[in-house]
Each structure stands twice: as C-alpha cells, then as structure tokens.
Amino acid sequence: MKVAIVAAKFNAFIVDKLVDGARATLREHGCGEGDVFVVHVPGAFELPAVARRLADAGGWDAIICVGCVIRGATSHYDLVSGHAAYGVGKVAMKAKVPVIFGVLTVENVEQALERIGHGASYAQAALEMATLYRQLDAHA
Fold this sequence. Notes:
Blueprint (H helix, E strand, L loop, with lengths): L2 E6 L3 H17 L7 E6 L5 H11 L4 E9 L5 H19 L4 E8 L2 H6 L3 H21 L2
Parallel strand pairs: 1-2, 1-3, 3-4
C-alpha cells in the first residue's frame, strides 16, 4: 500500500515520534520506504488543506494526518484543534481513500508524552480502512 503522512511541524518533539511510530507499523505490514510519503506542514491548522490536495491528486491508499495541539492560556487551542478535526473530517468524507485523524489534543505536555505511541494506532487504522475500502470497491 502507498500511504501519505501529513505531519505538523509545531510540537515536533511529539509529532516526530507519532510519525516514527506510524512508519514503523507500516513497515511491519509490508510498506516499503518508497511506499510512504511524509510531508510536513507548519501546524495542525494546515493539515486539512494538504490532505485534500493529496486526496485529489490520487495515488494513495490512505492518508494519515498527525499533529499535536497542547492547550495554552488562550482560545487558540480551541480554534486550531476544532479546525483540524473538522477539516480533516471534511476531507475524509469526500476522499475516495481513508483519511485518518491523528491529532493529539491535550491539556499539557505530560498528556502528549503519554500518547506518543499513538502513531502506530493511526497507521493500523489506515491499513484497516484501506483494506475495507478495497473490499467495498470490489463489491460495488
């Protein structure tokens, strides 16, 4: 399978670990290095736009969006996390391939660190959904 990972650069100390976990899981399931494309965007806000471009371009069996939004003292957290969730969901509903929402939305760094292993889960979800989409297409 060919999988694209869209990764936010903001909070890279967390996001890079999510990407590493996703890549390791994809490798374990037979994806070669050339089958996984990682593209970086400034932050979680930009994830939906790039996911949409990748979905429209085609050639992917799944797209995984990863990021980490940590609550701060302002409402910025709510705006960014809400936009990321809504935007990725909107792309997922229109795309012909699964688009996985892998954005941690946490209260603090400790919670983010506790969830640093979720990258593997996002990759597993992408593989399961890509397989399901193939099965559904075969029965259409």
